[in-house]
Amino acid sequence: MASTFLDAAGHRRSPATLPGYHVGRPPRNKGLRYPADPPTIDEIVAVMRATDERPDGLRLRALIVILWRAGLRISEALALAETDLDPRRGAVIVRRGKGGKRREIGMDRWAWEQLEPWLGIRSTLPAGGLFCVIHGPTAGRRWEASAARKQLRRTAEAAGVRRRFVPHQLRHAHAVEMAHEGVPLVVIQRQLGHANLGITSIYLQGIDSSEIINTVHSRPAPVIPATAGLSHTR
Length: 234
Description:
The chain contains nine helices and three strands, in the order αααβββαααααα. It has helices at 41-50, 55-70, 74-78, 109-122, 145-158, 167-180, 185-192, 197-203, 209-217; strands spanning 85-86, 91-94, 103-106. β2 (91-94) and β3 (103-106) form a beta hairpin. The longest helix has 16 residues, at 55-70. The N and C termini lie far apart (112 Å).
């Protein structure tokens, strides 16, 4: 049996690649807080266009659509099964959201159209998760979040997006865009699966400062009576 300390070429493996190396080690970004900084529609579409027409590219494009247009967490998206989609009603079932809670959410018609190419590929693979491994003996098994994040990051770089681009930002973008469209806050809360409105309001901190400035700057002047401030004469 080949030594686990040597790779296929007979070279000594890095300790970081050995089983158990990361056990008990906290992630490097543990405790870090990132401000709500959702990507723009132009940036998201640019990343979608940077995916190719091969199965791997279609899978990533479909994942971006689910995260962006349905506002799912990455764990919720990767836990979806094909049977959790109901295109006729425009509904997606999240069977185990945060805290193990089940909810049913909506997704727009454009998003369903964008899913169709991947669903065609998915139907030819072994049964399993909606987003699954495509190649090799593990085809059909659930796609791992680490692999999805890596492909998303590389595709964003290829698209020329020169800033942090991660799955959770697409969820923030979903919330901000719905707020722009006048969707009631309580509906956004239910869509995102938040326990209270306070959490939802944090997501809306991603609204661009220039929009706030322009909105306040364009307020009408106060209306006052014409006689205000004039002294009364007998």
